[in-house]
Amino acid sequence: MIRNGIPTWRPPVWTPLFTSVRVSSPLVSPTGGFLAAHAGPFLVSPLLLLGARIRSRRRQLGLTLKTVGEACGLSVPYLSQVERDQANPTVTSLASIARALGVSLDFFVPAEGPHAVVSRSGEGHDLHLRELPYRVRSLAGSGAGLQLEPLLISVEPQFTSEFTSHLGEEFLHVLSGQLTLKVGDESFLLQSGDSAQHPSTTPHAWGNPGDSVTRLLWVGTPRLF
Predict the structure, then answer these.
(1) Cα 33 to Cα 89: distance, rounded to the nearest angstrom
(2) Most confident range, picked from 91-105, 170-184, 211-225
(3) What torsion, rounded to 10 degrees, do the Cα atoms 101, 102, 105, 106 define?
């Protein structure tokens, strides 16, 4: 760098620590066009400045500034300035950038410290949903930025659901009884103590082939309630 005609030297900033973040949502432009999808973990340093975090995520997805700009309605010069920390985006602009890159706003503005939400026994609440023919009890705590939806589900005997698919990822653990899980062309019979995890974008269905109620812990993204 040259300042007032005199070369100056700036020591490098080292960022050796990395955090793995999983994103499974596809990226869709405002016009409905498909931009990119990323279902695996990617590395980003928690020590990076805002602009560098945006640039790291964009490059991880292989997107150009023009592509991201078209998706979030911001100009290429402005996005370039943001990535070089020469412009401070408004919350609205940053939210648009986050959507274009398939992450939440919290990804670029992480919490200042750890935050835990504890739900005590008996604090959960039942969800009465007519479209669901099984009993659902929410185990989720209340708080900003929570991404997971934990549910305690009771499936009646001989129940079989229709195939469905949606954005996100699902994990389930059979607490008691048995459950037939169909994911795409595969079928699994899960017994008490068994677990399964799969992307929600793959058509999937449940069934309880037994004569007693099946209880399972289900955790998925994004939040539903």
Answers:
(1) 25
(2) 170-184
(3) -110
Angle at the Cα of 103 (from 182 to 144), degrees rounded to 5? 95
Tokens encoding 54: 């945006």
Q: How many secondary structure helices (H) and strands (E) does the chain include?
A: 5, 15
Residue bearing the bigger pLDDT, 149 or 11: 149
Give the pLDDT confidence score for residue 192 in this predicted structure. 96
pLDDT tens-digit series, residues 135-194: 888 888 776 667 788 999 999 999 998 998 887 889 999 999 999 999 999 999 999 999
The closest of 37, 39, 35 to 71, measured between CA atoms, is 35
Amino acid letter, residue 6: I
Domains and CATH numbers, the chain: 2-108 (1.10.260.40), 125-221 (2.60.120.10)
Which token pair is 44? 């980003």
Report, in angstroms and rounded to the nearest whole number, the Rg of the chain calculated over CA atoms. 22
CA atoms of 213 and 77, how far apart (whole Å): 59
pLDDT at res. 175 = 97
Question: Which helix (H) or strand (E) is 68 found in, with range?
Answer: helix 65-72
**Token reading at 112:** 């200042």
Write out the H or E segment, with its range, that includes residue 175.
strand 169-176
Residue spans of beta strands (DSSP E) within 26-115? 27-28, 34-36, 41-44
Residue 144 Cα distances to 87, 104, 116, 167, 212, angstroms: 27, 12, 11, 21, 38
